[in-house]
Amino acid sequence: MPEKDKEGKNFHVNQPQESELFFLKGSNELDWGMKNRLARIFSPEDGRTIMLAIDHGYFQGPTTGLERIDINIMPLVPQADTLMCTRGILRSVVPPSLTKPVVIRASGGPSILKELSDEQIAMDMEDCIRLGVCATAIQVFIGGEYESRSVINMTKLVDAGLRYGIPTMAVTAVGREMERNAKYFRLAVRMCAELGAHYVKTYYVDEGFDTVTASCPVPIVIAGGKKRPERDALEMAYRALQEGAAGVDMGRNIFQADNPVAMMQAVRAVVHGGEKPDKAFELYKSLKGK
Ligand code: R5P
Asked: I need a labelling partner for 151 at 20 to 30 A (CA). Which of 162, 239, 261, 269 fits?
């Protein structure tokens, strides 16, 4: 028989209960589970994230830097906020003791040998729940051969995620034939957001990126794209953040760097430390030299 407790008396009747606005752009009306997952991906301190993207093998196999995830990638994970990968890599290589949030690649199908926009949803929401992921990621091919289907696939994933409180990150793909300018990205990210994506990954453009972020009602993170010199990659990240991005989802510019661990730390200095590119590059060089 439990001991009888005394009735509480301290009701603070003159103090209204506090309710805070959620810190992420366009996300205030989401349900608790969605917000909680997003708050694990994006830091509530500064609203930013460093996602480490290592999902490239889902269409291009063991590309440079991803030959051995256990050896090359796992040492980078402590400096990332979020790991973005496929369920195959998660189950086979990533230790389940990982407490960082995972964003799971949930689309796939064609390889680099075929038409890439022919992607499908390649993962069931039930498995996303089983794996405890914080968001799903799906490629959307605006202007691509299978544009319409890829958009509808995204909406299906959004609907499935909404049932269980799992956010969807839409990834704007840029195929060979697609443009890479602000006008194109304004269209692509806005379509993704209008049709339900909770945040969008896109590419940085030198001209007018601030119009891409301004006209997108949900957070944007940038992909790194092809490998470029380390200082340039740090500058791109810095400029993207200055122009409204909420973080990076970076892969090749980290794991293909001369020293990926040092690059990871330099990116961290830019995203969360507000470090300017020159200083971050100095940090990279000093860490690399160690
Ligand atoms: C496509 O391969 C994936 O969505 C990658 O996660 C994405 O492109 C980000 O990686 P990277 O910075 O290498 O472009």
From this structure: 239
- pLDDT one digit per residue (tens) for the chain, 290 residues: 677 888 999 999 999 999 899 999 999 999 999 999 999 999 999 999 999 999 999 999 999 999 999 999 999 999 999 999 999 999 999 999 999 999 999 999 999 999 999 999 999 999 999 999 999 999 999 999 999 999 999 999 999 999 999 999 999 998 666 678 999 999 999 999 999 999 999 999 999 999 999 999 999 999 999 999 999 999 999 999 999 999 999 999 999 999 999 999 999 999 999 999 999 999 999 999 87
Whether residue 119 has its Cβ less than 6 Å from ligand 1 = no
Q: How far is the CA of 224 from the centre of ligand 1 (A)?
A: 7
Q: Give the Å distance between the CA of 225 and the centre of ligand 1.
A: 6
Rounded to whole angstroms, the Cα distance separating 251 from 223 reads: 7
For residue 143, CA distances in Å to 149, 151, 159, 174, 249 come to: 11, 11, 23, 9, 22
- The Cα–Cα gap between 190 and 192 comes to 5
Can you tell me which atom of ligand 1 is nearest the CA of 56?
A: 2
Annotated active-site residue in 25, 114, 201, 227:
201
